[in-house]
Specification:
This protein is of the alpha/beta class and about 280 residues long. The protein has 10 helices and 9 strands. Strand 1, helix 1 and strand 2 form a beta-alpha-beta unit. The N and C termini lie far apart (about 35 Å). This is B12-binding domain-containing protein.
Length: about 280
């Protein structure tokens, strides 16, 4: 039996959940990454069709969490972990929220021990693990996998995913269905070129084996028109922002683009697509 939960981290320090900001109520980046897995679950197909995601297409899916405040929302994560007892936890984070991602992973490992594989993805991983101009995998010094290898952060993440993960997550579910031990999952990732299997997408999956970083790469461009949209699979809690009273503010950038709308001076991740590009994506 494969049980999965997803956590999108949007907090750092003591940010309160009632802070006025243009924040989506949906963890849309995780919706995008898991939309194909959820689609297969809804059809009862493969490993995902035998998972706790069989009813995931119900609106406002309860297997995802979007966390803004650790102090206020930690109990929600504890309750979800205890109720679902997942053997796969996917965590998405931006750079500024990375400390929160570590706390989520630490909590999952503390409660579930060796019975869970924790995967870290999101914009921060995309920014720090990528294919360079020589067509080689570049891993920056501040990449989470490097920090874990050098013991700067605790050993709480098993796999690190960069890029288009829609089909890769499906493949991970299939691996965990046959053997859910995280160490065995890591070895299979390191020993098997899963890119040779039908796993479309431009992605990089990395792990640490015997203090060495091992990566596998997918080189097939994802065909978005062959994968259902995130909102058609999961629905949405959001009908606009409540920052401007009486004004419905759309979230097209959040639901259909591949970047962050914010333009913080301390962050490199505010490169969201322009409206014309959004129209092209639609």
């Amino acid at each position: 039996m494969q049980n999965t939960i997803h956590v999108k981290v949007y907090f750092v320090g003591r940010l309160r959940s009632d802070t006025l900001s243009l924040c989506s109520r949906d963890p849309v980046s995780l919706y995008n990454a898991t939309r194909y897995a959820a689609f297969l679950a809804s059809k009862g197909q493969g490993a995902w069709g035998k998972s706790n995601w069989v009813e995931i297409c119900q609106p406002y899916n309860t297997k995802h969490l979007l966390l803004h405040s650790w102090d206020e929302e930690k109990s929600q994560l504890i309750d979800l972990i205890n109720s679902e007892k997942p053997n796969l936890v996917l965590i998405g984070t931006m750079t500024i929220c990375f400390p929160g991602a570590i706390e989520c992973a630490k909590l999952a490992k503390k409660i579930l021990g060796k019975n869970v594989t924790v995967v870290l993805g999101g914009k921060h991983i995309n920014e720090t693990v990528y294919i360079n101009s020589l067509n080689e995998v570049s891993i920056l010094k501040n990449a989470p996998i490097n920090l874990q290898k050098e013991k700067v952060i605790p050993d709480v993440f098993d796999l690190f995913v960069s890029g288009e993960a829609e089909h890769l997550i499906v493949r991970l579910g299939e691996l965990i269905m046959t053997d859910s031990n995280p160490e065995n999952v890591k070895k299979r990732i390191a020993d098997t070129s899963i890119s040779e299997i039908d796993t479309p997408g431009e992605w990089i999956i990395s792990t640490i084996i015997e203090d060495e970083i091992v990566s596998q790469v997918g080189n097939t461009k994802l065909k978005n028109d062959e994968v259902p949209s995130a909102i058609s699979v999961f629905g949405t809690k959001s009908d606009g922002f409540d920052v401007f009273p009486g004004t419905v503010t759309g979230q097209l950038f959040s639901h259909y683009s591949m970047g962050c709308v914010y333009k913080c001076s301390f962050c490199s991740e505010s490169s969201w697509h322009a409206p014309l590009n959004l129209i092209h994506l639609l």
